[in-house]
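Prompt: For my understanding, could you write out one protein's sequence and backbone structure tokens?
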Amino acid sequence: MITKVDDGQRSWLFPESFQLLLDQQLPTGRWEQYASGADSIINTLASLLALTKHQRQPSIGGCPSIASELDLRICNARRELSQMLQLWDVKSTRNVAFEIIVPALLEYLGEESITFSFPGYDVLQTLRSAKLGGFDHKVLYKNEASSVLHSLEAFVGKLDFDRVTHHKVQGSMMASPSSTAAYLMNVTEWAYDAEEYLRNAVQTCQGDKPGGVPSAFPTSIFEMAWVLSTLLLAGYTGKSLGETNVSIIANFLEHALKKGNGVVGFAPGFVPDADDTAKAQLALSLLGHESRFATQLVARFACGTHFQTYPGERNPSVSANCNVLMALLHSPDPNPYRIPISNATKFVCDAWDQSADRDKWNLSDNYVYMLQGQAFVRLLACWDKGYLKQLPALLVQERVPLALIQILHRTLQSQHSDGSFGALSCESTAYAVLTLTSISSLPWFDALQPDITSAIESGQQFLANREMDWHGPSYLWIEKVVYSMPALCQAYCIAARYNHQSPGIWTESVRDLLPVASTKLIKLQRFFSSLPIFKTHPFRQRLLLLSQLEASLFAVRMRRARSVIFPSTEKAEQEYLDYIPFITTSCNYLGTPVSTELLSELMLLSLLNYQADEYMESVVGMRFGHELQGIRESIVRLCRRNTQPVNGGKRGREPDLNSLLEDEKALNNSAIDVELVFKRFIAYIINHTKVLESSESLRRQLESELRIFMLAHVQQIEDNKRRSYRQSDAVETTSDLGRTYFEWVRGTSADHTSCPYSFVFWACLISKSGQNCFANVKAMYLAQDLSRHLATMCRQYNDYGSVARDRTEGNLNSIDFEEFQTDCVPKGSPRASEDADVQKNEDDGPSTGAEETTRKKDRLLWIAEYERQCLELSLERLANECSKETMDAIQFFVRVTDLYGQIYVARDIGVRTH
């Protein structure tokens, strides 16, 4: 869009670039999408603007197209843009500065009488305000450079371009052809150095077709620092790479760091950033150069809880913080940087726990896994050697190992049958191979070494077979549009192809962070592998081993929380800690994984539900069975009090678990203590932060289901007492309950399982702030139907496995209902032939009590399987009404609940109260 006047004649300065736009327009009317939908939107917006300017000024020389052709092209582009904008998920877009560039392009097109209306417009404007909030563009008139200089095309009409001339470096505005073009078009005195920069960019970067430019040029420090550090980390040395060439690059990087007072940008003279500074420092450290710049890295980019890539960035980068960690951890003595190392590590762990590991600079998850894995392994190595001993124990001994286990699993899980990982690209596969070689050096995965070695070798073979593709485009890197960097792709592929596993040398300090495979753990893994949910899984041994390692770390967390609400018993505690973490982590490995934060929440909820069940049976039932009406009234009163708005109409914040210990005296199970326990439990559920942030409909439903759950326990106590009374009269019947088995198992019994209220609590956890993940009446109805079938099925499985315990303790069981006593089965029913066989056997002689019990249990299992079919239908229908993200989380919840039922069928894991 640049025009220039020579000898009184105005002409387009780069007609070859406009011709490239014409050549690149797709038949549909849009322009290319490299890897994200936003690429095509941004390309088409900018190209459409260029077309309209050429159409409006046909008299300007150098235009290679006639007006009639432009009319059709513009019409097609407008139509395609309208369709793309309607479908654009603005919130998920990661392109650099899109939140200011796209609104600017829309404004410029509006000046050409081309306007668009789309659902994400308000979100886009909100992001724009957040990006520019507090930013005064007049700051650009001062001497201090800003990353905004890279996107001056977003400030046409708002900025006096004559007053930013002093920010040019070698004729460019922060190495951005588009930003420099905007400057050249809007400055009053022609900038020949800017023209020369643009001509150089077009000539240097044109490739097969003239006229094209990248979104950033040059990127010399970025390319050299990334390539060199990548190869050195993979085991190459200065000697093996060629000492003369390595020396030239090292001197270049060191000179740039000195000139920039310890910090650099992606090319000499441009705005420094933490990423390029850290990589340049890391490359020099790996070559054995004396580290002199780490202090400046911290001083310039440390930002409280993390490192910022650029000052004032809207959303921090996980990869940038990993790169800073690597640079600091490769210092001869990292102890002076203990606090920034701790802050960066905690930031990366927090992002990982919340599944916010998608990075702003690279599309591949494997890229973040690689950097995080390398940084955390290096952190443990430094800690093992005696450095950084003052880092928080929770961080080093729990959170870092937990993230490494999960990274290992997710990387292995992402491998395809041809050896590639992730997005079927060479570069993404190289990231994964480097991740595995780094993490495999840890001492906790000896039993998995055959699997890891096989994955690495097949990945390396994939790279060997595709060596010709190492130079090809791999659109993974994020700038204004997604781009490829052939030099980096080749470096990562070389590093991965020729990198070899090497066992680390670790002391007991690191070895003891995770448990060895004891006989007990091996038995537990063997038991789980026999359950239906795992039995046919092709990698069940690997899955269960990693689950057990992960569960051991979560068990530590659970021990800290076990006495916060309910008084615990050693016997019960052992049962909980054996199963809850293992069940939850193993189910998370069977599908799209939920975040560590959600895992931890569900484990704590499961712990509380186990404890609530035990407490109601062993304390309320045994000690206050004669005061059940008072217990009911207490539950209703406490639920009502905890759900009332507080603080001027606003709900209270989530109670800190430790703050719930209002009375530090030992609980002696008095009536006062029972009310205190109820109060703690209800307050934790109802006033949880995610519950308070969820929609009003979900909160009301949760409050109702929680009250029903607790009252169902009281009703169950009454039912058990009535059954025990009847048993004493040698009469075993449930007719006096006043309910059929269907009414009981779908009502009191299902409510008693905790599944219905837990399902709603889970919905609160996975819903976005102020929203309900079940967004319409169909989804809400199906979700409730699903939870009821799930609860019923789980209770029936539970009863199937706990018949003996229930009889010992006098608990009402499904098979105690009179419907299970009858032999009347309709002819032709699925059970008719089976019951005929049973009757024939009984005719041959009197049946034993064991045979009778077996027959009843078989019928119960048949009904449970019917409930499973209903559950599966509900899931199928619900998937049509909810997002994939929601359904992934719901499927996980269902797997966990189902697994508890499968375990009960195989083995009664309930805590005996007698």
Summary: DSSP finds 37 helices and six strands in the chain. The CA atoms of residues 179 and 262 lie 27 Å apart. Confidence is low (pLDDT under 50) at residues 644-667, 728-732, 829-844.
